[in-house]
């Protein structure tokens, strides 16, 4: 089920949108046969469903065993790889 179907009816209002930006978004929505509201909701749903780099790093840190390496270990592995 798309995320937009789980809405609780909340309203988001965005002020001071540049008129050129608004015109571009309206045209994109129109070209897809969508209302501006539906188009923006789909954009927000897609953004919310995509992890940020910080979220990916935090998830990996939670899910992985910690790695115990010293700078000397790293430099030794680098030097070994160069041989």
Explain what you see:
- Helices cover about 60% and strands about 0% of the residues.
- The protein is an all-alpha fold.
- The chain has one domain.
- α1 (about 20-30) packs across α2.
Keywords, separated by commas or semicolons:
83 residues; mainly alpha
Task: Write a brief structural summary.
The chain has four helices and no strands. It is mainly α and 83 residues long. The mean pLDDT is 91.
Give the helix/strand layout:
Elements: H1 19-31, H2 36-49, H3 53-63, H4 71-82
Helix pairs in contact: 1-2
Distance from N terminus to C terminus (CA atoms, Å) equals 54 Å
What is the total number of structural domains?
Answer: 1
Helix % is 55-70%
Shape summary: elongated
Radius of gyration: 23 Å
The description of the largest β-sheet is: none
Order of helices and strands: HHHH
Number of extended strands: 0
């Amino acid at each position: 089920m798309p995320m937009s179907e789980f809405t609780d009816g909340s309203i988001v209002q965005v002020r001071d949108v540049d008129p050129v930006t608004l015109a571009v978004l309206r045209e994109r929505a129109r070209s897809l046969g969508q209302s501006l509201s539906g188009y923006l909701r789909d954009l927000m749903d897609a953004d919310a469903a995509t992890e940020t780099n910080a979220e990916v790093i935090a998830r990996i840190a939670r899910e992985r065993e910690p790695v115990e390496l010293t700078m000397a270990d790293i430099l030794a592995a680098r030097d070994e790889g160069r041989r």
